[in-house]
Amino acid sequence: MSYVTIDQVTKGYENQVVLNDISIKLKKGEFATLLGQSGCGKSTLLRSIAGLEDVDLGRILIDGKDITNLSPRQREVGMVFQSYALFPNMSVFDNIAYGLKMKKVKDIKSRVKKMIDMVDLIGKEESYPHQLSGGQQQRVALARALVMEPKVLLLDEPLSALDAKIRKSLQKELKRIQKELDITTIFVTHDQEEAMTMSDRIFVMNKGQVVQSGSPSEIYTSPVNTFVAKFIGNYNVCDLEVFRKLVRSTEIKGNEVAIRPEVLQLVSVGQDSLDLQENWVIKGVIKDVSMIGNVLRYEVETEESAFLVDYLHHRGNMFEQGERVHILVPKKECIIL
Amino acid sequence: MTVDRNWFNGRTVKPIPKLLENIEEREVLRKIKKQKIYLLALLLPFILFVIGFEIAPLVAMIKNSFYADDGIQVTISQYITIFKSKFYLQAIQNSLVISLFSAVTSVIIAVIAAYSITKFSQKVQNRFLMITNMTSNFEGIPLSFSYIILLGNNGLFTLLFSKIGWDLFADFNLYSWTGLILVYVYFQIPLAVMLIYPSYQGIKKQWKEASSLLGGSTVSFWTRIGIPVLLPSIVGTFSILFANAMGAYATAYALVGSNYNLLSLQIASLVASDVALKPQLGSALGVLLAATMIGAMWFNGRMMRRIRRDLR
Amino acid sequence: MKSSLTIHKVIVGLLVIYLLIPLVGTFLFSIAGKWDHTILPESYTMKWYIELFQDERFYDAFQRTLFLIVMTVGLSVVIMIPTIFIITVYFSKWEGLLQAAAMLPYGIPPIVGAVGLIKIYSDGPIQIAGTPWILIGAYFITILPFMYQGIRNSLRTVNAVQLVNAAELLGATKFQAFRTVVFPNITSGILVSTLLSVALLFSEFAFANLLVGGRFETLQIYLADKLNSSGHLTSAIVITYYSVILLLTGAVLKLTFRNEKKPVVSNKKRILSFHKNTTLEGEK
Questions:
Q1: Contact C162 A85 (CB under 8 A)
Q2: What is the residue extent of each domain of chain B?
Q3: Which of A41, A198, C144, C215 could pair covalently with A208 via S-S, beta carbons 3.0-4.6 A apart?
Q4: A295 touches chain B (CB under 8 A)
């Protein structure tokens, strides 16, 4: 039984289709990410779930209840906005307590205190939003949404306004809190690394449609088409004809071939103990070497196109610029698109 | 762990035209929500005020300008009268000349003064801006009065200078079009400074540095980069000042009296004096005045859009 | 470097003197006893102010002006805040129309507006020409651009739409949201527009003279009437009136300085450059 069901949701705006027949099913407690570039519809879909935008066709159900025509305040969802949307005239405590006051809940003080503790903002209860850092503001926004114990938590690119270090630590905290509360979460981002780190399941979106859905490793190792392959990671994507020419074989059929840079191997010209059963060989020349974090990335120029080959930085440079090499392409790792 | 690629690739999506049809239906239904009709009622007071005191008067004026003096016959005779009358053409010319002169003078002074202001520390700059802000409110009857007691026939400075022997001011007549220009300039300068000053913030210091690194002198910087960048703002400010001056009534009324041959004063005497002679003619003049002002504002808008294009 | 600053000092100094002389001169005139040919008055006295503050007609005029201002600004606040909020949040498609209607008055000088107003309200079914009511209507439109800009910018600065969305998701109705999280944050913006409008209406002469004239003598009409009498007394009126203006605009500057970090030129600047939505100075 799915907890959140998005059933053939479609939305148009000024003669354009913004959400095109989207269907998604989420389990309770799942952390799902909508991943895509700007304009793909991910934020619109999120806002539709929140009730801040209408849908033209389709239904949205949460915990069995059809909420498609309910107003935002009736849906029991919580949302964290990209720009936090904290109420400037209220302290941290009052911001978090706001929803509880609206609902006329009895035990406001203890519930708010518990939430402040959970997001690690003890001591900041009386501060005002403008006195807080970006990361602190985001945590208030999170606490404000969670204290209501919503059925679903929606996050609209909540971390994109923060700098890298804070972002990483907040990602961890967010995940920890989500697991602790076991709350179904839908996260929107354009950062594929962020999506990979945090999600149970990723929904890659493009032009109003879900192009692929699956676990992070599924999406990473088995992209379904060129778009996903190029969006996730640094796949080498090669036209089929070109590839056939390079490996001098007509074994494979399809449109394109995608290979991850870390599955390729480089060997110096002259080494003859190459396993030609398992691998194809492409001749090339090292064009460029760059160090990206702890990865050594080689750009290898072949007869037709360039390939990226990644190595973990063990011992330092193994190949020099201009050196002629053979690229070993494991047949199993070639993904046909 | 195999992904069913075939499902993704083989899935068909509803064709878009059909989709849009269905969506359109829903959109219409959405709009007729009860709640929104109640809200429209709340907007009613505003709409009534706008129609009653903003739109209707304009429409009435335009309509009335096409009637003859009897108020019944529809004709363009009022406009013909204006363009044949030496008197009214003079009125239009006077207004145009005075507005043009005062606007140009004010803009030039403001461009120089605003630049000088930018040379000081931020605190001092703020003080100056405060002064311009406060003096920009000194206009209309009070301003004319001040000038009368200073430069009028028995004005302070007039008497003072004649005593000292400065003949310049002996021939000066405050109650003429030169006097009007002088007073107009006074209230236009603060406005011009406030409008032009911010554009200097737009001239980034780095531009000057880049220009000099590439071998340019101060003069060449200003002629090739500085002034072209400022130009839209300058021209826009000019058109605002011009429109402002064309519509000025109180200042002129106090300085030269209600009979002086200025467009705004003449309109007043035709529609609002105790002997309301020719409201239709007044309406026609009003239409002409409004047209010049709208023209100036439109021009300002175009200049401002030029700035935005640059900023993009 | 020093020499170049001198010339700027001279220019700005001249400008300041030029701007302040009429004010200073009028002020001196208002406290001068005998002042015929000398640079400074020969004697000083407060008798002109005393005479002014004993003039019943002055108080009546002041009262009438105050009445018009309170009515107009009060009406404007009560009508404009809901109107702008409703259009911003519910009917955002009509924002362009609202803006056009709100900014139009700035392009129509009172003399032009008066022509049509007199025509409509002297003959037709609603005959309010010559009464203060037509003046209130005209004044409402006069301050419309300032009230609109002030309120709209305040709503934008606090990102009112998003605050309302957030509040709704937490269980508030749109009205509750407005009351609790939007209105408290726009009060200073409203205050600034109000003060500016008050200052504007104190200085308004054209509509008053053209639409009602002597039948409802406002402060400015009283002043115009006194122009031909004693110059000293008139100076006292001018200085009194201008002090009120200074107080109001001073309060505005103080409030806006407090809210923004960069130097604020003035709200007039923002209104006059309404054609461009981005600005070159400190608006966020």
A1: yes
A2: 15-64, 82-311
A3: A41
A4: no
| Identity of the residue in B3, B9, B23 whose CB atom sits nearest the CB atom of A56 | B23
- Going by pLDDT thresholds of 50, 70 and 90, the confidence category of residue B16 is low
CA distance B291 to A236: 65
Of chain B residues 3-62, which have a CB less than 8 A from chain C? Answer: 36, 39, 42-43, 45-46, 49-50, 52-54, 56-61
Q: How far is C275 from chain B (nearest CA, A)?
A: 5
- Classify the complex by whether its ipTM is higher than 0.90, answering yes or no: no
Q: Tell me, yes or no, if C180 comes closer than 8 A to chain A by beta carbon.
A: yes
pLDDT value, residue B31:
55
- Which residues of chain B neighbour A54 with C-beta distances below 8 Å? 30
Q: Tens-digit pLDDT profile for chain C (284 aa)?
A: 445 788 888 888 899 999 998 998 888 888 887 776 667 777 888 888 888 888 888 999 999 999 999 999 999 999 999 999 999 888 888 899 999 999 888 888 999 999 999 888 887 777 777 788 999 999 999 999 999 999 998 898 888 999 999 999 999 988 899 999 999 999 988 998 999 899 999 999 999 999 988 888 999 999 888 887 778 888 888 999 899 988 988 888 888 777 654 434 444 555 554 433 322 222 22
Do A183 and A115 touch, CB atoms closer than 8 A? no
Record: contact C184-A52, CB cut-off 8 A: no
Q: How far apart, in whole angstroms, are the C-alpha atoms of residue C155 and residue C158?
A: 6
In chain C, helix, strand, coil percent, each to 5?
Answer: 75, 0, 25
Task: Return the domain boundaries, chain C.
Answer: 1-45, 56-272
- Architecture of the domain whose range is B82-311: Orthogonal Bundle (1.10)
In chain A, domain spans:
4-231, 236-336
Dihedral sign, Cα of residue C41, residue C46, residue C48, residue C52: positive
Residue A98 has pLDDT above 80, yes or no: yes
User: What whole-number distance in Å separates Cα of residue A312 and Cα of residue C195?
Assistant: 67
Query: What is the spatial distance between Cα C246 and Cα B137, in angstroms, rounded to a whole number?
Result: 9
Amino acid (1-letter code) at residue C221: I
Is some CB atom of chain C closer than 8 A to the CB atom of B145?
A: yes
**Rounded to whole angstroms, how far apart are CA atoms A280 and A247?**
6
Task: Specify whether the CB–CB gap between A211 and A225 falls below 8 A.
Answer: yes
In terms of CATH architecture, what is A236-336?
Answer: Beta Barrel (2.40)
> Looking at domain A4-231, does it have CATH number 3.40.50.300?
yes
User: Would you state the structure tokens that stand for residue C219, as one six-digit string?
Assistant: 């402060």
Q: Is B31 on the interface with A (CB under 8 A)?
A: no
Q: Is CATH 1.10.3720.10 the classification given to domain C56-272?
A: yes
DSSP letter string, A276-313:
TTTEEEEEEEEEEEEEETTEEEEEEEESS-EEEEEEE-
B156 touches chain C (CB under 8 A): yes
Please, are residues B246 and B296 in contact by the beta-carbon 8 Å criterion? Answer: yes
CB contact under 8 A, B307 and C224: no
- The chain A residue lying nearest C171, using CA atoms, is A73
Regarding beta strands A265-268 and A279-292, do their DSSP bridges make them parallel or antiparallel, or are they unpaired?
unpaired
pTM, 2 dp: 0.81
Cβ distance of A88 and C169 shorter than 8 Å:
no
